[in-house]
Structure formats: C-alpha cells, structure tokens
Write a structure and sequence with these properties.
The complex is a heterodimer of chains A (59) and B (142). Chain A is mainly alpha-helical and 59 residues long. In chain A, 85% of the residues lie in helices and 0% in strands. Chain A has 2 helices and no strands. In chain A, helix 1 runs antiparallel to helix 2. Chain A is elongated, with a radius of gyration of 14 Å. With 142 residues, chain B is mostly helical. Chain B has one domain. Helices cover 60% and strands 0% of the residues of chain B. The chains are: A mainly alpha (59), B mainly alpha (142). At the A-B interface, helix 1 of A face helix 4 and helix 7 of B.
Chain lengths: 59, 142
C-alpha cells in the first residue's frame, strides 16, 4: 500500500493527467509536449496557491 | 496550366478520406475504452498509445495501491457519478471487480485520494478513446 503525501499525490495526478491532455488536445509532438508541460505547471501551481489561500482563511 | 504545391509553405493536409482505414469505424473507440491506448495501437500510433497506456494504467494501479474504492453501484447521485467514472476504465474496472481489488470502505486519507485517482483514470481513458476515434475518422490529422 502506498502512503503518499498530499504533495506527492498532486504531483502524480498532475503528471498523468497532463500527459493525457497533451497527447489528446494537440496535434504535433512538439505542441503536445509544450501543452503537457503547461498543464502540469498549472495543476501544480494552482494546487500550491489554493493551499495557501485555504491556510490563510483557516487562520 | 499545371498547379503544384511543391515548395509552398503550407503542408498538404490529410483529408478524412486519406485517414480512413478499412474496417469498423468504431473499433479504435471501443478498443481504446476496453484497454487504455489500444485505440492508438490499432492506428499504429505506438508512442502515443504507450504513453496513454502508462499514464492511465499507472493512475488506476496507484489508486488501488492507495486503497481506493471501486464503486459497485449507485446508492446516491455521487456514487452514481463515481460509478460512471469507474466504468471508463473498461476491462481494468471489470477485472478489478472480479478479483475483488480496491477497498470496500475508505478508511484512510490516501484511500480517498486513491478513489479519485481511479475515477479520473476512467475519465481520462474516455478522452483517449475519443481521441483515437477522431484520428480514425480524420477529424484529427494522423
């Protein structure tokens, strides 16, 4: 059984989802890679920003 | 007067007729749903198929390893949505049910994450299967 931390789970989720998004939403390999990278960055950065917002609201 | 595209900036666009192969048009869609990446393999998109397969199967397996739950039926609307998401995994879901994989009750925090991983793997598999169908019909260039 895997006991992943919250952040590890976010990274794994972002990696797999952005891979599928990149392949299915763009047509050429170069654009697939760039779009996948863009999605990965958005997933991770939005998770960090929302975490900080929730932390500040909870204080 | 002869017209040639040779040397022009625009690449020749493949039409639906050029993309279409012989056989049942929905085969990549159904194969892609039953097993992640199989639709792309049928269209000889080996690299894309392998990446899709690794991503979706990886997400499903990690979800199970986190003690995620496989939905069995619909007691309420949220269970129903989860069940529909799980069904997107195709054979992975059915084998998981047959072999009794997945937790019956979510008891740990990672189990809740795992349940979401399994549902999202199913939804991503549906997107991948539709992409294979679009490649097959020529809506998306090969």
């Amino acid at each position: 059984m895997i006991h992943a931390s919250h952040f590890t789970a976010v990274l794994l989720f972002a990696l797999f989802a952005s891979t599928v998004f990149g392949i299915t939403m763009r047509e050429t390999p170069r654009r697939m890679f760039r779009y996948g990278l863009y999605c990965f960055a958005l997933f991770v950065s939005s998770a960090i920003v929302i975490s900080w917002v929730m932390f500040l609201i909870a204080r | 007067m002869l017209y040639s595209q040779k040397g022009m900036a625009t690449a020749p666009v493949k039409t639906a007729g050029q993309n279409s192969l012989q056989g049942f048009v929905y085969l990549p869609l159904i194969a892609g749903w039953l097993f992640p990446g199989a639709g792309h393999f049928l269209l000889r998109k080996w690299g894309r198929g392998a990446l899709l397969c690794a991503s979706i199967v990886g997400m499903f397996v990690i979800g199970l390893a986190m003690h995620g739950k496989l939905y069995t039926g619909a007691q309420d609307i949220l269970d129903m949505l989860g069940f529909v998401g799980d069904l997107g995994n195709g054979l992975l879901f059915f084998f998981g049910r047959i072999f009794g994989l997945g937790a019956d009750q979510v008891q740990v925090t990672t189990g809740d994450y795992g349940t979401k991983f399994i549902v999202v793997a199913g939804l991503l598999n549906v997107i991948a299967a539709v992409d294979a169908h679009n490649l097959r019909t020529g809506r998306k260039p090969l």
